[in-house]
Amino acid sequence: MTGAGRPRLSTKKRPGDTAREEILDASAELFTTRGFTNTSTRVIADAVGLRQASLYHHFATKDDILDALLSGTVDAPLAVAQRIRDSGADASTQMYALAYFDAGQLAASTWNLGALYLLPELRSERFETFRDHRYTLMSLYAAIASDTLDQLDSERRSGTEDLPFRLVETVVNARADRENGRRDPTADAAGIAEAALRVLGWTGDVTALHRSAETLLEAVVGIVEDRRSLHST
Amino acid sequence: MTGAGRPRLSTKKRPGDTAREEILDASAELFTTRGFTNTSTRVIADAVGLRQASLYHHFATKDDILDALLSGTVDAPLAVAQRIRDSGADASTQMYALAYFDAGQLAASTWNLGALYLLPELRSERFETFRDHRYTLMSLYAAIASDTLDQLDSERRSGTEDLPFRLVETVVNARADRENGRRDPTADAAGIAEAALRVLGWTGDVTALHRSAETLLEAVVGIVEDRRSLHST
């Protein structure tokens, strides 16, 4: 094996600007459609048109690929959640904005990577950093939910703060069922965000809340155009 | 191999009154903790203390075991949902009762089998019957949700009817995270049922709704005592 520096065997087979991105895209497809255990690094290398040795130059193990993919689903919402929490906006606007952003990115990703969250393999120490980041995101959701309950003066029931995060992750299950042939309508990102507020006892004008959340997202990240185009599809 | 009729190799190793139940229990543990692909029928046979040939007498393939386990998570709520729908009770009581029953059984099962719902293996024709039953259950949820929206005169947003079912399935994710070391509180079956109503725009006295749902479940199935003990844990 001549290894890392070797030129590509063939022309570009996958979306992505770099070999690393192509490897991630091919792995995401294979892991979500054939399963993580059923996919070898050899099959991934073949799908990208790389020698296995070149693949190992980018990722030493298959676990490293999985970690990069899963971290990609959590790191953007985590950064956005932290900025939203520091924004000083009112709690219900923060809650809607976070759920709307996160449900939108889970719905719009090329592959339904959230379907891998329940893999038993993720219990190993190798994935501790990913788990920590995901639990930090959950805690930010819970903190914003708790502030929203205070703002609404809703009755507190143990575990209610966990529900907005859980609702957002249902995008993953709805996508999986759609890919599996189910045709009934499912909630879009705005529908999920509205539901995240309702489970906290919120009732009110969702049009006004949606607008203030878009303004907040615009201030927090330059992504409102992406959100809008997502929402309109 | 002398096959099917052969006596057990050892004394009983697993919970269950019959060899079939012990095979199902061991498989549920192995599939949810080590993964479906990572578990061979040989490992299952060893865990139960059976020869592989005897295992094949009960289940011809590993897929048959998975199908029996998954069907077990859907068939009881499906039967209950059909009786609830035919009960003539008011829609919000039906909705609460179904979500409460179903979230309770997902939370109380020995193994977190719902974590297997997103396996790519389930897309094959072998699991068409299971998928059909699960989609029928989803449709019953959606029909009861739609009646509840009518009753509440809530504004209709596409996909809202899908949310009560999705909320109930989040019990699976909350369990998986707890088994993975997360300590924050999560909603119990009653909290999930209340949230299932709130996403439909319901606001009101949850104590009265809980009581009428228990009465309905008592009429529909002789399981209210189980529900109560579930709720109190």
**Largest interface, Cβ cutoff 8 Å:** A-B, 50 and 50 residues
Radius of gyration of chain A: 20 Å
> How much of the polypeptide of chain A forms β-strand, as a percent range?
under 5%
Query: What is the molecular shape of chain A?
Result: elongated
Distance between the termini of chain A: 47 Å
Instruction: Note the run of SSEs of chain A as H and E.
Output: HHHHHHHHHH
Helix fraction of chain A, binned, reads 55-70%
Describe the structure.
The structure is a homodimer of 233-residue chains. Chain A is mainly alpha-helical and 233 residues long. The first copy, chain A, folds into 2 domains: 60 residues, Arc Repressor Mutant, subunit A (Orthogonal Bundle), CATH 1.10.10.60; 169 residues, Orthogonal Bundle (Tetracycline Repressor, domain 2). In chain A, helix 1 packs across helix 4, helix 4 runs antiparallel to helix 5 and helix 5 crosses helix 9. Chain A is elongated and about 60 Å long. The N and C termini of chain A lie far apart (47 Å). Chains A, B: InterPro entries: Homeodomain-like_sf (IPR009057), HTH-type_TetR-like_transc_reg (IPR050109), HTH_TetR (IPR001647). Chains A, B: Keywords: DNA-binding, Repressor, Transcription, Transcription regulation. Chains A, B: This is TetR/AcrR family transcriptional regulator. Chains A, B: It comes from Rhodococcoides yunnanense.
